[in-house]
Amino acid sequence: MFRSRANKDEKGRAADKAPVTDSKQPRDPQAPKGRPTPKRSEAQSQRRSIASTSSSRKDVARRQRDDRRAQMERQRQALAGGDERYLPARDKGPVRKFARDWVDSRFNVAEFFLPVAVVILVLSIVKVPVLQQVALGLWVLVIVLIVLDSAFSGFRLRTRLAERFPDHNRRGAVAYGLMRSLQMRRLRLPKPQVKRGERP
């Protein structure tokens, strides 16, 4: 019992003698930081490398943007002038070019669909029963003519492609030509390169 009390007194005196440290004291400038301080030349070279990396990334991004713009401009000019080198993939190749020229060289009923549809719409709005009956009859007539003309055009185009390109891949060329025939001639892209009635 006396021994434990003596031990407690010794521990208390040792705690009183221990130096009191303030955790908020600033760190001694001479104390080690855990890593060596880089030389000024090394720090400057590191800053330069970081700056050059960021500027090179900006340069690369700017060059890529410029390349994309140039490519789109070349495609736009190719669609207007028919330059094969810069056409989109769906328009490239001799088979697609022949399909375009064959469609552009003839009259297609489907290309007049939009103007006729506007006329039919105006006639159907007018509150005259006779004109509304005429509009309905015109609508049925136009649809039938477009279906017959498209079927005939598809058959003829498939035959001509088989004759002209027996060893080429002709897949999708007939559908490509028929989709082109649905557009008004002045709105077609690439622009027509042959006149009506001209043999492609």
Helical region count? 6
Q: In angstroms, what is the radius of gyration? A: 41 Å
Q: How does the helix and strand content classify structurally?
A: mainly alpha
User: What integer is the average pLDDT?
Assistant: 81
DSSP strand count:
0
Shape: elongated
- Straight-line N-to-C gap: 121 Å
Percent helix, as a range, is 55-70%
Largest sheet: none
Order of helices and strands: HHHHHH
Instruction: Bin the strand percentage.
Output: under 5%
Low-confidence stretches: 14-23
What does this structure look like?
The chain is mainly α and 200 residues long. Among the domains are: 50-87, no CATH class; 89-187, no CATH class. The protein is 64% helix and 0% strand. The chain contains six helices and no strands. The chain has helices at residues 2-17, 40-81, 94-104, 113-125, 129-164, 173-181. Helix 3 (94-104) runs parallel beside helix 6 (173-181), helix 4 packs antiparallel against helix 5 (129-164) and helix 5 (129-164) packs antiparallel against helix 6 (173-181).
Detail the topology: elements first, then pairings:
Elements: H1 2-17, H2 40-81, H3 94-104, H4 113-125, H5 129-164, H6 173-181
Helix pairs in contact: 3-6, 4-5, 5-6
Q: Can you describe this structure in just a few lines?
A:
It is built from six helices and no strands. With 200 residues, the protein is an all-alpha fold.
Highlighted features:
0% strand, mainly alpha
